[in-house]
Design goal:
Distance between the termini of chain B: 19 Å
Structural class of chain B: mainly alpha
Helix content of chain A: under 10%
Radius of gyration of chain A: 20 Å
Number of strands of chain A: 30
Strand content of chain B: under 5%
Number of strands of chain B: 0
Number of helices of chain B: 10
Oligomer: heterodimer
Radius of gyration of chain B: 18 Å
Structural class of chain A: mainly beta
Distance between the termini of chain A: 34 Å
Shape of chain A: globular
Largest sheet of chain B: none
Largest interface: A-B, 38 and 33 residues
Chain lengths: 468, 218
């Protein structure tokens, strides 16, 4: 791997400088293929307005194996390479690290020299991942002080429950798997997403479920008896130790995406809770550090919507309502707007979180949804609901896809979830509106999950310098 | 103790290497900028400098002090001078071949800034770079009484060399930190943060080469 003479131009010292960077030209979108007739793929989508292929797939990187189940992925290097204590500014943001969540296989995809013709350069087989880390079902990828950090959902054994899941490290230049990250996991027994504040030296991780609770679909008995994850874990990042765990309350099932403020001088962040089993509500929680102690408070709730049971899948018929099912949240680089995907009710919400303890609804678009099935404004049918959200660096566009996870899609949207990607334009000062021109319909058979933007996006980069 | 008048070149080299180390963002000024910006006050830029300097001076002392005690006779100084030259060249070649950054440094948190600065300087071979210059300042003695005196002088001169060098490093590093914090801004990092890994490795080799030539000719 070659070192550059000057820092990679896509590394930005502060969130503000990242916002002023050039507009993204491509989106990379994970395209799982649940029927397993072909391998999953990464689609490269043209995002340049005015281009002949705007909103079209210009290239597809088909993986080498079938049934990997792509979910989340990330970059080998990002703005955290400019962090003063662990500066490594002359590597390139070049490789996508793409884990198969079902297979535990990891693909390394080179996006240079031509981002529209990215190609696979390395495949790490599941046996190697499991042998070197003791973990399986790799998930979130972040680039940080010690290289590439990857969270996992399972441990050893066929169903991934013979040992605990956690985070492991990978070298950001050679892609060698280094080993498990934790020195002391404390009470942590489940895992999902994680992120950090590098300068304040802490990490936060969340809990979804153990593999038997998600791989074959949502287990209703487990959910109703509150056996999914409901705890946040706080870690000393450099010492790799769990320093505090906060139980959000057993009824707050599945805290998923962790979104810390991008400005490193801010000691707070957000997490979305999928469902409150007492009332089907979804909630947004704000976690924060005060005098060295972490706290978390429920700062916004989203109510379920009553619906005709005839319109509901078997799983929900008995409730006569659609839960919002907040499955992803994403925070703009200026820490001003939090985007909240309500996959069940078919809504993307925009909250103004200038006061992080008081999120206020600033905008909303409705599309898809279990009961509503709102079509896209250009008239195209929209199955599924707003799912993985990715905001452009400048905060002006929010891209999102419609599939959650193969077996869960089938339970909540039994009529199928053909892969789509759409985009909402953000009005200055708040408010969002779906872009009529941008609707990517992926090839039949593919679903769509996480989106990464060329040069970085709002859930990729970590910064060590504040904006002001 | 060797006066500046006697060895102006050596003292110039000690200060020059201080400037050179100070310019390197990896030696600490970048941390000072981040610290100032996070706390939104200029004094926080300067608050970061003492621990960085303490770590750096310790890294220098750790390399120089053993030699202050070892090198007392002419033969010893000469032998150690050759050794230092060879070590520098070997370390420089290693840095040329292996451009990977040592990962263990990433385990040190911001609450252990002195240790971080010490290890950063050590991992870069900063103390080693200073060693031949220091050895060049040593004046050998032959009778035993004077040798004991010499060891004492050696400790003193090693400390002075480490302090003078670190002051120069601190001066330039602090000035850059303040300039970036107050006037130049973070965009500079994107434009002007040149990759000095090769230059640094070449510098180790060059200093090692000079040390060898000077030791042989002495």
């Amino acid at each position: 791997m070659t070192a550059t003479l000057r820092p990679d131009p896509t590394f930005y010292p502060s969130p503000k400088l990242a916002m002023a960077g050039p507009t993204e030209r491509y989106a990379y979108t994970a395209l799982p293929r649940p029927d397993k007739t072909r391998p999953d793929a990464i689609g490269v989508v043209d995002t340049v307005r005015g281009s002949k292929t705007f909103g079209k797939v210009v290239h597809k990187i088909e993986l080498t194996h079938k049934g990997d189940e792509l979910h989340h992925f990330g970059w080998n290097a990002c703005s955290s390479m400019l962090c003063p204590m662990t500066a490594h500014p002359h590597v390139e943001r070049r490789y996508l690290i793409v884990p198969g969540m079902r297979s535990s296989r990891i693909y390394i995809i080179d996006t240079k020299p031509d981002p529209a013709h990215a190609k696979i350069v390395k495949v790490i087989e599941p046996e190697e991942v499991i042998e070197k880390t003791g973990y399986s079902r790799p998930h979130t990828v972040h680039c940080g002080p010690e290289g590439i950090y990857i969270s996992t959902l399972g441990g050893r054994g066929k169903d991934g429950t013979e040992s605990l899941p956690g985070v492991f490290l990978m070298d950001c230049e050679t892609f060698d798997i280094i080993g498990p990250w934790e020195m002391d996991r404390g009470p942590q027994k489940m895992s999902y997403d994680f992120w950090w504040n590098i300068t304040k030296d802490y990490m936060i991780s969340s809990e979804w479920a153990l593999p038997p609770q998600f791989e074959n679909g949502l287990v209703a008995e487990d959910l109703l008896s509150n056996r999914y994850g409901h705890t946040l874990h706080f870690w000393n990042l450099r010492q790799r130790k769990n320093v505090q765990s906060i139980d959000l309350g057993a009824n707050h099932q599945m805290p998923l995406e962790i979104r810390p403020a991008h400005d490193p001088s801010r000691n707070y962040g957000f997490v979305g809770v999928v469902v409150d089993t007492t009332n089907l509500e979804a909630s947004i929680w704000t976690w924060y550090r005060e005098k060295g102690t972490f706290k978390a408070a429920k700062t916004a709730t989203i109510s379920p919507e009553p619906a005709d049971p005839a319109k509901l899948p078997p799983l929900l018929k008995g409730f006569g309502a659609v839960p919002p099912l907040v499955s992803d949240i994403d925070l703009s680089l200026d820490d001003k707007f939090l985007y909240v995907a309500c996959w069940g009710t078919g809504e993307l919400r925009q909250y103004d979180v200038s006061d992080p303890m008081k999120p206020t609804l600033a905008g909303s678009v409705k599309v898809g949804g279990i009961a509503d099935r709102t079509p896209h404004p250009n008239g195209t049918a929209f199955a599924g609901g707003p799912q993985m959200v990715e905001i452009s660096r400048d905060g002006k566009r929010a891209y999102f896809t419609n599939s959650l996870y193969s077996t869960w899609d089938d339970q909540f949207y039994p009529d199928g979830v053909p892969g789509l990607q759409v985009m909402a334009n953000v009005k200055p000062g708040g408010g969002i509106e779906l872009d009529k021109e941008f609707l990517v319909e992926f090839e039949p058979g593919y679903r769509s999950h996480q989106v990464r933007l060329e040069g970085g996006d709002c859930s990729t980069d970590s910064f060590c310098f504040p904006s002001k | 103790m060797t006066s500046i008048a006697e060895h102006p070149g050596a003292w110039l080299a000690i200060v020059g290497l201080g400037f050179y180390h100070g310019i390197n963002p990896g030696m600490g000024w970048l941390f000072a900028v981040s610290n100032g910006m996070q706390e939104r006050r200029g004094s926080a830029v300067f608050a970061a400098l003492p621990p960085i300097a303490a770590g750096h001076v310790l890294a220098m002392a750790a390399v120089l002090l053993p030699f202050a005690l070892l090198a007392v006779s002419m033969e010893q100084i000469k032998a150690l001078g050759l050794l230092a030259g060879v070590a520098l060249i070997a370390f420089g070649v290693y840095k040329l071949v292996n451009r990977r950054h040592p990962r263990f440094l990433a385990r040190i948190g911001p609450d252990r800034l002195v240790l971080w600065s010490f290890l950063m300087a050590t991992a870069h071979g900063a103390g080693l770079m200073l060693l031949p210059v220091y050895l060049g300042l040593r004046v050998p003695h032959h009778d035993h009484a004077a040798m004991a005196q010499m060891a004492g002088d050696g400790i003193l001169s090693a400390s002075v060399v480490a302090l003078v060098h670190t002051s120069a490093m601190l001066l330039i590093g602090g000035a850059i930190a303040w300039a970036v914090y107050r006037y130049l801004g973070l965009r500079l990092l994107q434009r002007a943060w040149f990759n000095l890994d090769l230059v640094w490795a070449a510098c180790l080799i060059v200093v090692g080469g000079i040390a060898l030539v000077m030791t042989i000719n002495a």
